[in-house]
Amino acid sequence: MTATTSTPPCEPAIQVAGLGKSFDHNTVLRSIDLTVPPGTVYALLGPNGAGKTTVVRILTTLITADTGTATVLGHDVGRDPGGVRRDIGVTGQFSAVDELLTGRENLRLMADLHHLPRERGGARAQELLERFDLVAAGDRGAQTYSGGMKRRLDLAMTLVGSPELIFLDEPTTGLDPRSRRELWNIVRELVDEGVTVFLTTQYLDEADELADRVGVLDDGGLVAEGTSTELKGRLPGGRIEVAYDDPGELAAAAGSIEEATAHEERLTLSVPHDGSLSSLRRLMGRLDDDAVTGLEVHTPDLDDVFLALTGHAARKAEPAPATPASPAPARGAHASTGNEAAR
Ligand SMILES: Nc1ncnc2c1ncn2[C@@H]1O[C@H](COP(=O)(O)OP(=O)(O)OP(=O)(O)O)[C@@H](O)[C@H]1O
């Protein structure tokens, strides 16, 4: 499957400026700005209640913003919601899968909603069952599926219409580690095919693994934005520890690398490091192979970044039971697929 690309290559897939939203007197989003280039993954990272789903709901035209502007694939979300809905796919926190139908029937239903001719719809369902490793289970009722299988089917249903941009709202919450990895691989494949992905997550490792850019949302404000490496690079504390056997060699190295600190008692040299491969390479080029006995890279992780930026911890991946705790809403409930948005 290849995503159709109607957006000119240089135009951002998503462009948001000054987006604000309040519910009654509760200000949920305060002037959010962000840009997502086509064919990339943007992760909106934040704890429960930060406002992530509200951003997704505005960008997918389910609700309107109070202030600011947003364009999605060139369509203004306020003036041309139909254009947005036509070109996107959305997989929400609650599954759109109808458990009374088989996997194949769910996919065919989506194909019907996209007005695919019958034969084409059948072929598309088969193609997606194969792609999502659901062929063996395709003719079984979806109520017999594991949490990971349901999530894969849900995403497959979103892809029936070959959207060029997909929104994934907390795609792996509640999945076990293996199912999370499977889903990550699927997301990577989609991006390789040119699909743009906007995902929300509470998981630092998910943002780290998947995203080209990460926006850190806390209490309705974007407190930082950048690549995962850039965000980590903002923190002091990244360093490379180089070990020696010979105090003379250590002293010589400390003399030649001015930003380094020698720890004579443990025979190590500590060199500040921004976490990039290039700075590691540069340092390696300056070390004497014969003198060095070991090397360790200490890099701050996104958890450190989050704590430093917000003053509180985000959530670490914690495998939950494979079956989602919440029942699936009836078909037609909000924010399950792009097609839902279109109805
Ligand atoms: N329709 C609504 N009416 C009133 N308040 C709402 C509504 N939708 C969201 N909120 C409030 O907005 C805030 C942000 O909610 P949102 O669902 O966007 O957060 P989130 O970051 O997606 O959280 P989670 O990770 O728990 O899904 C919360 O305080 C929530 O109670």
Summarize the topology.
Elements: E1 14-23, E2 26-36, E3 41-45, H1 52-59, E4 67-72, E5 75-76, H2 81-87, E6 88-91, H3 103-113, H4 118-131, H5 147-158, E7 165-169, H6 177-192, E8 196-201, H7 204-210, E9 213-218, E10 221-226, H8 228-233, E11 239-244, H9 247-256, E12 261-263, E13 268-272, H10 277-286, E14 292-298, H11 302-310, H12 338-342
Parallel strand pairs: 3-8, 3-9, 6-7, 7-8
Antiparallel strand pairs: 1-2, 1-4, 4-5, 9-10, 11-13, 11-14, 12-13
Helix pairs in contact: 3-4, 3-5
Enzyme class: translocase
Main location: membrane
GO molecular function, one term: ATP binding
Explain this structure to me?
With 343 residues, the protein is an alpha/beta fold. Among the domains are: 14-97 and 145-232, Rossmann fold (3-Layer(aba) Sandwich); 238-298. Helix content is 34%, strand content 24%. The chain has helices at residues 52-59, 81-87, 103-113, 118-131, 147-158, 177-192, 204-210, 228-233, 247-256, 277-286, 302-310, 338-342; strands spanning 14-23, 26-36, 41-45, 67-72, 75-76, 88-91, 165-169, 196-201, 213-218, 221-226, 239-244, 261-263, 268-272, 292-298. The strands form three sheets. It has a six-stranded mixed sheet with strand order 6-7-8-3-9-10, sandwiched between helices. The longest helix has 16 residues, at 177-192. Residues 1-5 and 316-343 have low confidence and may be disordered. The structure holds adenosine-5'-triphosphate.
